[in-house]
Amino acid sequence: MSSKAPKWAEHLRKHFSGPMTKDEVQFLRDIRGFIEFAIRNGLSFPMVVSAIDHDLNEIMREGFDLKQAKARGFLPKVTGASKLSEEDFGESDEPLK
């Protein structure tokens, strides 16, 4: 770990602390699942980044209020990706270079 990591972590906690809602945590888990699925199944970088960017932009339009974004009909493109199982993922466990 970098020697700067603890200082950076403390800065983040000091300036950006606060609990996330269950929906916000689930959204972040879906992003993580989407990225893992994309890496293991050879999806293109532009496709992955554009899908995540789309979702983040929609949430930012509502002042980072995920609940409000969903209330106006927004459905994140990454929805459900955290529910993907190992069977849904590609077989490659090869480390990334």
Poorly predicted parts: none
Shape: globular
Main sheet properties: none
Averaged pLDDT: 87
- What's the helix count? 4
- The H/E string reads HHHH
Short description:
The chain has 97 residues and is mostly helical. The chain has a domain at 43-81.
Explain how this protein is built.
With 97 residues, the chain is mainly alpha-helical. It has a domain at 43-81. It contains four helices and no strands. It has helices at residues 5-16, 22-40, 45-60, 66-71. The longest helix is centred in the first third of the chain and has 19 residues, at 22-40. The two termini are 19 Å apart. The mean pLDDT is 87.
Please tag this protein with its features.
97 residues, mainly alpha, 4 helices, 55% helix
List the helices and strands and how they pair.
Layout: H1 5-16, H2 22-40, H3 45-60, H4 66-71
